[in-house]
Amino acid sequence: MTEEIIRRTTSICPECLQTIPAEIYVDPKTNWVMMRKDCKEHGHFKDKLSIDPDEYKWGETFTDDIGSTVDNSTKPEYVSSGLKECDEGCPYDCGLCENHKSAPNICLIDITNRCNLTCPICFANASAKGYVVEPTIEQIFQIMEHFRSMKPVAAVMLQISGGEPTIRDDLPDIIREGKRLGFSEVMVTTNGIRFAKSIDFLQKCKDAGMDAIYLQFDATDDPEAWKKVRGVNLWPLKKRVIENCRKIGYFGLMLVPVIARGVNDHEIGNILDFAKDNSDVISGVVFQPVSLCGRISFEELMDLRYTTSDLKVAINKHTNNAIRKFYPIATTAKMTRLLAWFDNMPEFGMTSHKDCGFATIIIVNDKDEWESLDDYFDSEGLIKWSNKVYDMVQKKEIPKPTGFLKGINLEDFGAVASTIGKFIDEMTDLGYRQMMKAYYFAGGIKFVKHPEKVLTSKTYQSFARIIASPNLASAANFLHNKNLMISAMHFQDAYNFDLDRVCRCLVHYGVVDPDDNSKTLEIPFCAMNTLHRERIELANAIKGEEAKKAEVIQAEIKELLETVKE
Predict the structure, then answer these.
(1) Tens of pLDDT along 130-180?
(2) DSSP character string of 237-250
(3) How far is residue 126's CA from residue 162's CA, in Å, rounded to a whole number?
(4) Which residues contact 559 (CB under 8 A, 6 or more apart)?
(5) CA 288 to CA 488: how far, in whole Å?
(6) Residues 6 or more apart whose Cβ sits within 8 Å of residue 117
(7) Per-residue confidence (pLDDT) for residue 292, from 0 to 100
(8) What pTM does this model have?
(9) Phi, psi of 270 (to 5 degrees)
(10) What's the burial of 545, exposed, middle or buried (CB within 10 Å: 0-12/13-18/19+)?
(11) Are strands 19-26 and 4-12 parallel, antiparallel or unpaired?
């Protein structure tokens, strides 16, 4: 077997964090997709990206074939709101810089770096830094307004994170303001401790408009796995969060497991089963293969590295191959835009890099068994049909004639064609939308594999609603029928850092510019955690009397942690 180079990109040296060229190739000895790179000062580095080269290459090809990475660049419009030309070079000029290719879907704000846990695995290394970073509520609102004012398409989702965001008593006010500003989805990322201990606080957040809880969930009933990942067995508290959500009638909880090889990868099946058994509360699972911080040897890296391809094998092993194809997130970019257009909403585009992750749905049938979405309808066919209709909408085309005009090409009749063109120009937006909805349904219904079951199966009925009433709400309601969203986001570290991915990031941190507090910096997720976090947080750290107050609060949090251990 000969070596195959898949593509070339730019990465960084794990030692000095300077940019260096990198190659992504198939190793002939292991048949793994690997990244290799050389730093003149610190030597040679390698990392594993996938254990399935055919699937890895298919994902890239499929994304290109359907044209799902349509341009959603906001570069020209960003100039007035902070976009800058490269100075030090990408990715060091994030703020954003002119090289970024995808507009953000998610505004991510760390509302504090304080935390009531000291997890061995933590993106932000929260609570272990010796200083407090906590924007004021006015600064948080400023960041939200920045993301909602971006052109041509504002960020549609708000993710409130930390540290541990539930530490702040004003979290409901922050959620409420996010909804007022027009974020269609407000998500809170949490370890769940406060939601477990205070159903009243959970209710306040729900009443304020919290659409989703992203609950840290790394295992089920395995105390050792919890201690390795979080330092303490959190299983009793996680179950209490679920119970409290059920008591207040809350649906929209996503389980978020961080997976490390040899630590908790054996829990993947148990986590999936738990989600299935509690689907009245839980809408899905978002797996996050661990990002590795610090300096480690290649052997240690291989011992811990868990890729999305490893995850795919584990999911299908447990669900009897319920997911036929793991589509990259960007494959639904046009479909998402089309559903938003049908709803007369901003047409945000999920144009992430194919290596960033995947998203799909697993059916839970009436027998409580895992079942493939492709048993119900042709998902790839529907995606391609959605792409075609979206392209027609962009060109303001109308469908070819049907009924008694079927078979007649109106373009052969110059005067008639001219009249149709004028008709399209003068047609109201509402009228054109309604016509294209009918056209979408007429073509989309053929992708249902057993249409006769629409009258008897809730799953078929839910899918038929997406086609008959195409909008984002009907797509979201598909999850209310025991169906689960299964997805993964593999965030980068210094070993697998790929600049092509960073330039297509859809999840952007919003932070106050330490050099000018009236401005907001916007930094792609992986660039923030790998390159920018420490510098920005040190500059924005609370000083003086306010820091002392925060330290007192932090001490109170540690006392709470002791009750958790009990």
Answers:
(1) 788 999 999 999 999 999 998 778 899 999 999 999 999 999 999 999 999
(2) HHHHHHHHHHHTT-
(3) 8
(4) none
(5) 6
(6) 127, 164, 191, 193, 230, 231, 232, 561
(7) 84
(8) 0.87
(9) -65, -40
(10) exposed
(11) antiparallel
